[in-house]
Structures are given as structure tokens and as C-alpha cells.
Amino acid sequence: MEQMGVQRKRLMTLVTVGMMAALVFAGNYMQIKIPVALGDVTRVHLGNSMCLLAGMLFGPMTGGLASGIGAGLFDLLDPVYIVSAPYTFFSKFVMGFLAGLIARRAFQYEKKGRTAILLGAAVAGQLSYIVLYLFKSFVTLLLLGNDMQTAAVAIVPKIATSSINALAAVVIALPLSVALHKALARTGFSALMKAPEPKGWLNPVTGGLILFCAAAALVFFLYLSAGNSIQAAEDEKFAAMQEQIDTLESKLAAITEQLEISLPEE
User: Using alpha carbons only, what angle is made at residue 68 by residues 62 and 71, rounded to the nearest 5 degrees?
Assistant: First the structure.
């Protein structure tokens, strides 16, 4: 019976991760894209609210995985964001994980204390994502050859849209988490929501995920850096060829002038 209980819990965890990842994925499609001067587009969307909701309902690991998987899949299916999918998995995982870590014991308190903890969890999770997102945007612009001042100016629109997304995410996730927790407490999902807090969240599973996320982020930045180096080398080669062409044209013009001839027009 105990073995069946463990297997059932694992199955429920997989179902929950898949279900919340689907909500995160769908929330990202509820969007308004806003073009920016440099870099990719920025967006106002509802994906972040689902990331917070996943963590606040089901805890750090389930919430983090659902957030990272759902948002990462969205990026993989959009040509604009496909290159940044690994970093998106990392940053969204952190958002869901942190929100879940803080909110884990919220429903053990009275309504007043519970609301304060859930609000803190939502704000902390969203702020962690904003910092990671703006850091990625800033470093990306630097790696693409922009100076620091230009990069700083270019991320201003992203600060505005990130703030709108953050406010919307907190406003949506907070009441939903309370309402859904009450409803889901009567279902088989209650075991996941009431799971005791582990003595230490840093274990081989979370450690491996952290290393994977860090490696994915590193690969993303190395890819950008390599692409920028290749582009710079090509630009330098093109500039040298153009200089040679200009020199030859100058010599040819001087020769035709001395010989008092004119070249046929194209």
C-alpha cells in the first residue's frame, strides 16, 4: 500500500506539472507584442501569473518545473524567442520556485497572515524574474556590440512592460491561489498541496536542476558571444574588401584621366 501511495504521488506530481505547464504555455499566448528599438520584441502577457500560481499552489519544485517547462516550450515554438528558450526555462523556474518556497506554509495561517505571505511570495517571485530578464536583455545587447549607455536606454521599454506584467501577475495569481486551494483541497491534489516542507531544499534533484539551468544560461550567452564575434569578423572582412575596391577605383580613375579616355557606362 505504501508503495502504491508513492507511485500515486509521483503520478499526481507528473500530472500537476503537465497541467500547470500547459496553463503557463497558454498564458504566454494571451499577449500583446511591443516592438523595441534594439533586440527582440517585448510583451505584455499572462504567462507570469500562471507561473506564480503554480508555485503558490503546489510548492517550489512542482511550481518551478511547470513554470520553466511551459515558458520554455512557448519560446521554442516562437522564432523570435527560440534562441533564449534555455534562459527562459532558468528564469521562469526561479520565479515559480521562489514563489512556492515562500508560499509553502501560507495556508497554515489565518486569513490575514496567509494573505500577507502569499502576497510576499508573489512579489518575490516576480521581482526575481524581472531582475533575471532585464539582466539577460542588457547582457544580450552588450554582446551584440552595443555600448552600455545604448543598452541601458534600450531596456527601458522592457522595464515598463515587465512592471505591467508583474502587477497583472500578482493581482491575478493572489486571489486565484486562495480560491483554487480551497477547491483543490477536496480532490486528489490536496496531498501535493499539503506535502510537508523538506528539511533541506538543496538535494541531488534540485542541485542537478540548478546546474542544468546555469549551464543552459551559459550556453545561451556563449552562443550570443560567438555569433557577435563571427559577425564582427565578417564586418571587418567586408570593410577591408570595400577599402580595396575604393582604392582600385581611385587608381582606375587616375589612369583614365591621364590617358584621356572614358570607361563605358554600364
Answer: 130
SS3 45: strand
Q: Between 170 and 148, where is the model more confident?
A: 170
Overall average pLDDT of the 12-23 stretch:
89
**Which residue, 39, 40, 83, is CA-closest to 221?**
83
Distance CA(56)–CA(20), nearest Å, equals 12
33 pLDDT above the threshold of 80 = no
Report the alpha-carbon distance of residue 241 to residue 188 in Å, rounded.
69
> What size, in residues, is the chain?
266
Rounded Cα–Cα distance for residues 70 and 64 (Å)? 10
What is the pTM assigned to this prediction? 0.72
Consecutive H or E run containing 33: strand 31-34
177: nearest Cα among 125, 113, 119: 119
Q: Which CATH architecture has domain 2-225?
A: Orthogonal Bundle (1.10)
H or E segment at 42? strand 42-45
What's the pLDDT tens digit per position in 48-98? 999 999 999 998 888 999 999 999 899 888 887 787 888 888 899 999 999
The residues spanned by each domain of the chain are 2-225
Q: How far is CA 142 from CA 149, 151, 153, 199, 222, in A?
A: 10, 7, 12, 41, 13
Residues 6+ apart with CB under 8 A from 221: 139, 140, 143
Report d(CA 138, CA 141) in Å as an integer.
5
